[in-house]
Amino acid sequence: MQLNIAKTQMYRNEEITRNIDWMTVILYMACVIMGWLNVFAAVYNPEDQTSIFDFSNNAGKQLMWIGTSLILIICILVIHHRFYDSFAYIFYGVMILMLLLVLVAGSNINGSRSWFKFGPVSIQPAEFAKVATSLALARFLDAPGINLTKRKDLLYIAGFIGLPAILIIASNETGSTLVFASFVIMLYREGLPGFIPAIGIAAAALLVLSLIVPKLYIFLAIAGLAMLVIWMMPRYNRTPTNILSISLIGVIMMGVVTGVDFFVNDVLQKHQRNRIKVLIDPNIDPLGVGWNVTQAKIAIGSGRLHGKGFLEGTQTKFDFVPEQSTDFIFCTIGEEHGFVGSAIVVALFIGLLCRLIFLAERQRSKFSRVYGYCVAGIIFFHVMVNIGMTIGIMPVIGIPLPFFSYGGSSLWSFTILLFIFLKLDSRRTSMFARG
């Protein structure tokens, strides 16, 4: 009897870990451990002999979050893979309710009412909204007959993405809102017409150009480009309708350029305008609004090739860079481990992203593939923007570096996001493709 129970338990343990992609797990653990060590480096005080296991500082607290993340991983792997598909819409609905509730009962931290406080613990629903939205989108796109060239389906998808994004921006959490743009990567893979993301990229480019180039030059460039397109068209396509359409697009682009001043000065808040100004001109106010970016670049640059050594960063020790254990954790990596250490971290993320794309492409279920691309897109956006803002090529929007930045909500959300996909991937051979 006891032997049978032992065999049954052994079989269940094998079932839990069967077909798990261990390469992804290793990359995850490497990122988490390196992140923990760098959080400790960011808060280390040589005078107080700060301990990495001191639960009163961020490093000790991060260790607790890592421990609870392991519990979450076990729970995710134990649950049947169909659970995530079947309850995707319920997860989404619950998360929308949480985003509404936080607007009313949430705590205001750093000007953002997006946190629930439970004693010393703070939870940010916006981080988990990315998981719920990914599951809901995967469930919707997995339904028969969904086509991303149909206006009706595009409106549904816009609603799935737009509703949590609007609620998050209502809590004054702009950075987390912008992350929802990463779903375009998945949508493009699933058949979204290329002109839609192209319009978004063109609008962003016009916004930046309008702030650094005189508008007259941009108008002349748009007019010249429109005439060049018309001239290069085959004669049989050079119809009045096509010429009018191209001219109308040019006029709309000029209208966007004209409205940039209104958008920046009357729509954006003061701190958002300042971030854009710092991006355009990093030296505009190095002791004021440009302080974070200036000190971040100094910290990274001072690391040179091999860095100053673990726990030897002077910019870190004297608190020149604010939020260095959270949003600006990459500064610690650059200063203490130099170009080599920074390159290793970037290589880890590239390896993780490549692995996620590989796993997504081998899925037999459309639900799993769509969800996998959502995971890859979200992580890519976070890495690109977080590292970009520390080296001055992206605006400072306050989003964490996945698995590295201090914070329970961030670590939990990325862990859940990743391991749900690993659970789905581990059961791909038993899941029937439905689309």
TrEMBL record:
It is found in: Membrane. It holds the Pfam family FTSW_RODA_SPOVE. It is a multi-pass membrane protein. Keywords: Cell membrane, Cell shape, Cell wall biogenesis/degradation, Glycosyltransferase, Membrane, Peptidoglycan synthesis, Transferase, Transmembrane, Transmembrane helix. The chain crosses the membrane at residues 20-43, 63-80, 87-109, 154-171, 192-212, 218-236, 243-264, 339-358, 370-397, 403-422. PANTHER family: CELL CYCLE PROTEIN, PEPTIDOGLYCAN GLYCOSYLTRANSFERASE MRDB. This is Cell wall polymerase. It comes from Nibrella viscosa. The gene is rodA.
